[in-house]
Fold each of these.
Amino acid sequence: MTNPAVSFEVFPPKTVDAAFKLWDTAQALAPLAPRFFSVTYGAGGTTRDLTHDAAHVLRRTSGLPVSAHLTCVGASVADTMEQAEKFHAAGVTDIVALRGDPQNGEERFAAHPEGFKNSVELIEALALQDKFTIRVGAYPDCHPDAASQHANIQYLKRKFDAGAHEAITQFFFEPKSFLRFRDQCAAAGITKPIVPGILPITNWTSARNFATRCGTKIPAWMEEAYRAAERDGRTELLSTALCAELCSALVDEGVDALHFYTLNRPDLTRDVCRALGVTPQTALSNVA
Ligand code: FAD
């Protein structure tokens, strides 16, 4: 088994305490020489300045590539492209380009009257600039808005055809979700990289709620395993074992890169990386 390349997603801090947590996360994970850190964009575009500042500081202090997430929600085309320009001016030339989720508890996504109508339009606009690396979201267990898995995959193909360079998937709990999706994407003619998104579970209740909202399938055996682990006070052990097992099953099937949703908690991610043979590279431990 060769060691996979890794990347780490963090979210921008809203308080001083949260800023320290992000800092600790970066310090703990930068020595693992990730391909990049990515910084999320709050639902409804609520963290646009914080995302910018966190991405900028992370890039400057870690010396590592940083990808800033950008959504179309609640903003005109001009505002969204101005935000992309600000990322670029801060040295952040890598963008995770997304449509985003519906605002204010609405059922369906509704575009801003002068905004991008979907992710494909945003990707096209970014690609036209010819100065960004563009990553996009992909959904192995199918996106709730997709009419079918076929439509889900065809839409991903449109995003690649529009200029995306790589896709990062929504998290999933079983290797077969990703492996089947990878095969279906290949059969649909998608040749660009699709990197599995991995969620180390720090809190099962939140992970399950989040999975329900975003369409990730929850295997019955996981419910039972967490129920027993909670009773015995061994959830951390279970999470580490399950996540390491998921990752090594993917690596055994030829997956060469993994993207971790760290939720600004580095310990579990670091333990799983260690189990996969991804260990600190002293030359790159330069977050200071
Ligand atoms: P898209 O792929 O554009 O659309 C999702 C699905 O809906 C498609 O598979 C397609 O089947 C269907 N669909 C959409 N539009 C059309 C259309 N016009 N015609 C036909 N079918 C259509 N959210 C945030 O708010 N901030 C973040 O920072 C953030 N980061 C994320 C990072 C990753 C790696 C992922 C996977 C998701 C992230 N999200 C984030 C969540 C994301 O915003 C939601 O999943 C959102 O509902 C879909 O965004 P998208 O660009 O991936 O969707």
Amino acid sequence: MCGIVGFIGRKPAAPLLLEGLSKLEYRGYDSAGIALVGEKGIEIYKSKGRLQILRDKIQDGKDLPQTVGIGHTRWATHGKPSDENSHPHQSNDGNFAVVHNGIIENYAGLKKELQAEGFTFLSETDTEVVAHLLQKYYKGDFMLAVRQTVARLEGAYALGILCADFPNQIIAVRRASPLIVGLSQDANFIASDIPAVLSHTRRFLQLEDGEMARLTSGGVELFDADGRLVEKQELKVSWDVDSAEKGGYAHFMIKEIMEQPDVIRKTVSPRLKDGKVVLDGVKLTEEQLRKLKKLYIVACGSAYHVGMVGKYVIEKMTRIPVEVDLSSEFRYRDPIVDKDSLVVIISQSGETADTLEALKNAKAKGARILSIVNVVGSSIARESEDVLYTWAGPEICVATTKAYSTQLAMMYILAAYIAQTLQTVPQAQLDAFLDDLLRLPEQIAEVLKLAPKLQQMAQRYAYLEHAYYIGRNVDYAVSLEASLKLKEISYIHSEAYAAGELKHGPISLIEDGTFVVGLACCERLAEKMLSNVKEVKARGAEVLVVTNDHVKVHADEADHILLVPYTNEMMSGSLEVVVMQMLAYYIALARKCDIDKPRNLAKSVTVE
Ligand code: G6P
């Protein structure tokens, strides 16, 4: 996730900007840069790679005297990590420098317009349009140019802006991306996150959507979107840096769980336009889709579990057979793929060794590769013909939560895209599916309200030795992930079974007090699922059922019943999994486990 800092005061800005950027490193980044403004105009220093490369390039900034500047760590979205794509970006006339966090959704149209007017683009980023729009609208009034520029932007942004004509000002503005203003006696700051400047001040102003801040060394003024002055109460922070990085949460895992409504919105909304799925940049043609005899989904770990959900959803929506494979198996089994096969690769990191090899193997056989990846410019993204990015931002906790959820959302988008292209479902059904997809973020936000209840329940289950998860269809696919979450972070032995398989073995493990979670959101199969629940309950199991109000579960059929909002059965997993993530988290918390870094596990498995 990109990080922004800005400093305006009496001391040289560069060392302070570098220090602030180093505090934002935890957010993940692939390049860094700063812009300084002084009497001689704007100077920009930036480079791909670690912050140390930039530090070395400018000798820690010790010979740069300017006292006003902005800095940025970039997490690539539009355009690969490179020096050119690093921020800050400058207007053609050199009068403006911009750092940006977020995604400008309408950048392609704006870029075309600006190019037609003679502006030259030096990067592949969405951000560069902002610098050129500022030049276009600037007639001597810095603030007015910023207001006119942001009025043209769609999507999410936090912007820090310098103007050479106003060397004693920084203007910052935000919509849907975080930005705070730090206040101190002889300096003022902007930052994406409090830790960036916490060693200099504990006094902050939080910008709301659409608000703008004008910083000088002497003070800060806030304005609303119409340019009216806004008065605001200062926020006094008493946390330490460590908890501030986690946004006040105890662990990155719970912070990332809570971010899910937001990242799903970011993943979904740019791809749904005027009631249609639009996959910018995907070159897969209708003819290629028509020829498909089979679609393969290949991935590891939780990404494989996403594929398991994807199978149900894509087959139901498109009637194309889907085979889901573990990368480590696929690569060694001489898979039957050819030029008429589509192989969908799912990977958060884009670097998982087995998945990358599976991709190369399928590609060598002529298959078309579409990957669903979170890290822009990663190896898997580079090797793929088509890439769909999940805009989850960097995930720091080893056990995935928000990346998994955005990958699930991509499965729905892909299924709907194929169904729309091949017209495999009636239009009304497709419209309803897309409406449900747009509703998911707010429904997940509802589910997150179950946190206190789950924390309470977790006290009871903290000392479990075994747990079993059962479900049917999508509920079964999600129970695989639910079970993995628990075992990864709490070290409790857990297994997931298709509920219909209970009688073929696992039921022999059920005895008094055995913990069983039944996922039962699929209305169509509810009766069958509840019979399975009764079977384990009759053998002494303690059962938690997660369902919705379309399924009738009697109070005596389960020990605990948790309701999630109703959505179509294909998407209900996106709600169930959030309950399961929180349950696993709070159980691990009660067991005092090292939640963000579970023993023996790695975030990115780059060896076989
Ligand atoms: C590791 C991570 C998992 C992840 C899996 C696949 O095991 O801990 O969270 O699902 O790798 O990683 P990928 O980056 O390919 O999604």
Amino acid sequence: MRIRTQATRPYEDQRPGTSGLRKKVRVFQQPHYLENFVQSIFDCLDGLAGATLVLGGDGRYYNDQALQTILKMAAANGVGRVLVGRNGLLSTPAASCIIRKHGAFGGILLTASHNPAGPDGDFGVKYNVGNGGPAPESLTERIYARSRELRAYRILEVEDVALDRLGCFRLGAMTVEVIDPVADYAELMESLFDFDRIHALLADGFRIRFDAMHAVTGPYARELLVHRLGAPEESVVHATPLPDFGGGHPDPNLTYARPLVESLWREDAPDFGAASDGDGDRNMILGRGFFVTPSDSLALLAAHATCAPGYRDGLAGIARSMPTSRAADRVAERLGIPCYETPTGWKYFGNLLDAGRITLCGEESFGTGSNHIREKDGLWAVLFWLNLLAVARQPVAEVVKAHWRAYGRHYYTRHDYEGLDPEAAHRLIETLRAQLGKLPGRSGQGLRVLQAEDFRYEDPVDHSVSEHQGIRILFEPEARLVFRLSGTGTAGATLRVYVERFEPDPAQQDQDTQQALAPLIRLADEIAGIQRLTGRARPDVIT
Ligand code: G16
């Protein structure tokens, strides 16, 4: 076995976005493209020699080839040991769990999350550090800088290896250990939640439906919900991971998880429905004919946290991304604990979690998690909800409405305009930015602008600063609009408009969300000129 040093030329477009490097599969298939990025990662990791890395992915198209390439490159770059999920599978939360549990140096995750897969779909590579969380911006920027000057990469010349059987083998001087992708994660879940109580709830006829969307969570959900908690086999649907996710779009929201949503609105609907995404870190929670917004879900889990054994001692604090509704803030206030507001991106929660300042965190983009790992965690949220319901013994809708009565309701929606001309999208944000100083004091649709700003975050732990993290406009009476461009898309630009209004009056809390927010939605267009600048009359996705 020989280590080859392969000459290459830099690609200019390898800057990681909100969550790793995500591109079309065809971009990754360009000669040396994947290798360049992986070598750039390795070159930026001081202390990699002899260290242990975790490797796995969501099973999407091109995972197989990428796994082989990365293993050979790891061996050629002096990595000591790689823990790889059987058949290359690891959900993002399981990878985070395994990095932490085995004290690994870091991990490489092959996923483009909820983006569609297949030869015409997306692929992605993400590096996670030793705490199990996504690499911080300082590291991803170094990796990007390295990718722009890279002239060669190292790879072991060897045949592809089999990854379908558990056990260890050598690859050059490196050890490869093929591990069960589910075991460590399932054990962690059992330590956090009251499995006996959930088991009893299900045994009493409480019916659930979990849609794995042909992505990575199928094997995890089967093990946890069916084998350990006793749910009937048919409770987990689309449970086999497929390289193209069955042609679907594994994004657990009202648009892309339509079949699940429809099943929860039928006469014979189950009591509880949930879905996760491509790599298993997102979640959507549904009751019979009822959708729980991710922002409300975070607030509810926080308010009920002590019902789960893992959180019995209470919460140190909560964090949410800036565009996420402020429902969690109200819970934090009542609990007398801090609530932090971070930019979009799970990586911003890492320091707060490591410093013990927060226990729970979440994002409007269907992400919820806690200090048990350093990624958001889809099945964890599902189990937390089941634990909550096993204690409350009330329908999902009742639990949520009781919360609104106690804390007030934050009507909330997100409108996405996808595949926009990037120039037009950037012009829209720039135009908005330019008028921020003039907005305060202006009124429209019965609302008065209190404050308008470009969100800037200073990390309270390491004091690093992230600028331009979204435009937010605060109104009186309490309402808010946020505008930002997605950092995860791979085609054109996506404008996200986040709309929120607080309703304290229980008599007014039962309106349809889009209707309750209609004046604000109109105002968003008036202020930002969405239709004028993008040519779009309505959003592509509403959640
Ligand atoms: C990623 C990030 C999340 C972020 C989401 C949406 O999720 O991990 O923190 O909220 O993208 O980001 P954007 O609005 O920039 O598209 P995932 O599930 O794709 O890894």
Amino acid sequence: MDASNGTSAKSATLTIGDESWELPILNGTIGPDVIDIGKLYAQTGKFTYDPGFTSTAACESQITYIDGDEGILLYRGYPIEQLAETGDFLETCYLLLYGELPTAAQKADFDYRVTRHTMVHEQMSRFFHGFRRDAHPMSVLVASVGALSAFYHDSTDISDPQQRMIASIRMIAKIPTLAAMAYKYSIGQPFVYPKNDLDYASNFLRMCFSVPCEEYKVNPILSRAIDRIFILHADHEQNASTSTVRLAGSSGANPFACIAAGIACLWGPAHGGANEAALKMLGEIGSVDRIPEFIKRAKDKNDPFRLMGFGHRVYKNYDPRAKIMQRTCHEVLGELGIQDDPLLDIAVELERIALQDEYFVERKLYPNIDFYSGITLRALGFPTSMFTVLFALARTVGWIGQWKEMIEDPGQRIGRPRQLYTGDVARDYVPIARRK
Ligand code: CMC
């Protein structure tokens, strides 16, 4: 296949044998052009083959842009560094959902609308009591978010823009309450109701860490840290869980059920589960002098071990979120007076060694956001099993924003990938008595 006219080409020519077809080339505002193969099968009788979607744009989107080679992440055009430094999480939510930063009045109105939806139906607490206390909080979150669809099914007409926005706001408002309930349940403490005069992050910390018998005072530095962690995780283009939400939603399914599908996908260690896995790995390494042994294992093709928190499908440079995360980690440890965290020492040294090692340099493997987030979240008081839950909480706005964008796309159709079939060809059924 040749692009007929270099990078400014409007079409590409596909030649198979002595037949040729022109394929349109579409331009985005930034990023690589895409070859439109939408009519390829109809015209040629051929599919494309791209397991893992490494070269496939599955949709058009205006929400998030990543330049993996340069280490750039933009939400609606704004660099992540600027949003994380100056704004708050609900401002980022507004930006992702509406496409523009809010004015002061729009922000106040949005905060109010989110705040008004923070409580969950009292009946929800009954669901929690059906789980074993030692259930992984992610399993509880998948189930409870899925269960929201039972409360808002008849009232959610996804063809009505206003109802789509209400569902989006409900999702953003209720996910911290459910995440905190999952945590409280796992440690046998009573659920804490949201307190609406607190900001989003402070409210979440209070729902997780306060108990009815004591006053709880939110530490503003820690609450700012958690708010920044939410901003860093809010959206990340067409990653596995977002694509899951889009695919689930493409059938017209209930949005709460679609978000539950995204949470299920996020759970895996190659995706959102990596922060939990990274912290476990640092614990397993145990001391700085054992790092070379683990680096050796990570490079050994016969050993399934990988350096968790390293590498990324898109970033072939430093993950911009990892830099902010590293700073936040130092701030949190400083505020809590943790002078010496042996895991932080291991992380810093591991990063230093890996960034000089030919194997990692050649493959452009850099620390990703999960490398330092585990240490930070642990210092904030969260057990490892809650790490992915916090990721899910923050990513909910990205998922719902991408779901909304998909539903609002006039060209939207049900997602239906094809396959390269390599199984048996048609053969006749053999009755069981005649099988050998
Ligand atoms: N440790 C050691 N080797 C690695 C690692 C790693 N963490 N990551 C990739 N490689 C090697 C891999 O073995 C392969 O080597 P070779 O070319 O010799 O076969 C090469 O680098 C390319 O790897 P890949 O598996 O083809 O890359 P991918 O784009 O499919 O995978 C990844 C991306 C994130 C799944 C992978 O880097 C990984 O498993 N990292 C550890 C898990 C992790 O930290 N995940 C969090 C991602 S960031 C949070 C999020 O967005 O969800």
